[in-house]
Amino acid sequence: xxxxxxxxxxxxxxxxxxxxxxxxxxxxxxxxxxxxxxxxxxxxxxxxxxxxxxxxxxxxxxxxxxxxxxxxxxxxxxxxxxxxxxxxxxxxxxxxxxxxxxxxxxxxxxxxxxxxxxxxxxxxxxxxxxxxxxxxxxxxxxxxxxxxxxxxxxxxxxxxxxxxxxxxxxxxxxxxxxxxxxxxxxxxxxxxxxxxxxxxxxxxxxxxxxxxxxxxxxxxxxxxxxxxxxxxxxxxxxxxxxxxxxxxxxxxxxxxxxxxxxxxxxxxxxxxxxxxxxxxxxxxxxxxxxxxxxxxxxxxxxxxxxxxxxxxxxxxxxxxxxxxxxxxxxxxxxxxxxxxxxxxxxxxxxxxxxxxxxxxxxxxxxxxxxxxxxx
Amino acid sequence: xxxxxxxxxxxxxxxxxxxxxxxxxxxxxxxxxxxxxxxxxxxxxxxxxxxxxxxxxxxxxxxxxxxxxxxxxxxxxxxxxxxxxxxxxxxxxxxxxxxxxxxxxxxxxxxxxxxxxxxxxxxxxxxxxxxxxxxxxxxxxxxxxxxxxxxxxxxxxxxxxxxxxxxxxxxxxxxxxxxxxxxxxxxxxxxxxxxxxxxxxxxxxxxxxxxxxxxxxxxxxxxxxxxxxxxxxxxxxxxxxxxxxxxxxxxxxxxxxxxxxxxxxxxxxxxxxxxxxxxxxxxxxxxxxxxxxxxxxxxxxxxxxxxxxxxxxxxxxxxxxxxxxxxxxxxxxxxxxxxx
Lengths: 375, 340
Known about the structure:
The structure holds 2 protein chains of 2 kinds. Chain A is mainly alpha-helical. Chain A is 66% helix and 6% strand. Chain A has 2 domains: 2-45 and 174-370, no CATH class; 52-145, abc type-2 transporter like domain (abc type-2 transporter like fold). Chain A has 15 helices and 4 strands. Chain B is of the alpha/beta class. Chain B is built from 12 helices and 15 strands. The model of chain B is unreliable at 1-5 and 322-340 (pLDDT under 50). At the A-B interface, α1 and α9 of A face α2 and α3 of B.
């Protein structure tokens, strides 16, 4: 009985893998696309903002103003956070700001130097294009730092009672591309789960192929376990390729560490099973092959972004944290972050593994109950 | 391992027993209280137009669709309560082509054989033998997507027999095939049936196919059984031995009564300007018909005389033409054909 069941499950897996092997495009798409996503997203979000165009209107022209402009030019020449352009006409500078020729305008007012020398709370103004929050925030931060240096020209007292904070980083600096890698591996597994999960059965239904095997002694459980295991094997391949190549591309230290790769294999396998089971459950009563294609985009967004793959979970509103809590992506991403960025052991991600295992069991049980063995 | 000898259960009297079988989808009943039996070793045809319910009958008998009411047994196994035993006993060729295009012929059969738990050595032997029987052995390693429709159908027939079923269901096995492939499939089925002691149940809307293959035919329309007998008996059961199909450019009032009065005429059915005249003597009625049309100045636009076919049997029992069958070549068409 069990032997026959294993035979049947093996046949379903064999059929699916043989088809997969003969479709190199599918293999490439499921593995390469997430890599492309990793590189594009990693560098699109991860870099330091540079070359913000700042116009400078000096209405003072005296020594303190010139010193201040000198410091701006030094930043422009070295850190290159911004480039400066001098304006003699404030009206022209404002017009350029509004039409987007420059991103911000720094105005040094006529009485600036006199107020500096008299200690009368001197001010300069930054007029900024706040439609781009990232640039304006980077500029404000750079200018605040610059003004701090300008104000602190005098030597500080040898002994101070001001409290300062010393930051000690436990791990080496993590660029954004490395931060994104755990989410990208999970996404690669999910792409394979989408292609190889319920959609294969729906395509079989659309082409009438399922009539062929529904008249054989296959049980519901044979079918579901066979399809899920076949999909999981493909997803594991995708996940492992991504975990290895992605680690190399993202610059993870010692990317081919065998022990870490073995630990990742465990997490990749459980993630693959959880996501495949979830997809099969979602698609178990769907007959129209257009339905999965229509919902994949939304599903991707609903699962990927609330998982903490691209932004910390702590920033999410309460309703989104509900999705985060039940989303299997969350546990996969957390697990991969621990293994890749912190190089922990499996014990440290025991909770993640437990959740993914439980999720797989429940999704597969529900799919078996809902699956229709008849047409 | 026990040494006790288990006596195999006695073979039931019928291979298939269908009793009041009904399948309704909401208010619409696709199969309506169908009752028939099929003997062991018989080729049994379910005949009917598209939508008559014949595929639904097959799907119920092959456990793909649950009946709304009634019962059916396949070699004594109830199709609902013992569905798994039924699946072991039957081979099914569904209407749609269900072989995997990406796999080779051998792989398709091998995977199917594994689904039935056939051991490796037996699997290898049986697949080779079946591929030889369906004349595909030289294409065994080629992907099915390179096959023609006829080759693919032959492969599916071989695949359906890989576990040595007792009953073989074929749902419109030759639909979409060219005439040569159709004849090849017929010959193959006849040979396989003899070699393997199979009971075959097939659906078709090709009259010549049913006539050529079936020992008995059940004509189904609107989900009901309208006639059941051997092709010969069915043909003998309707009036006349020839059918004249004639169409006119225009007809005067009372023309049908005029045609009914022609010599040897048994029955006249009209559909606008087309008349089907059942007659005991085709040539004699045709000559009289032409004379009558000339005298009445009625123009004959086409005329053909045929021996009685299952098509005529169907028209007789259901009162309508089999549209799909009209496209199929008729093997029994008389050379006496006139067109203007």
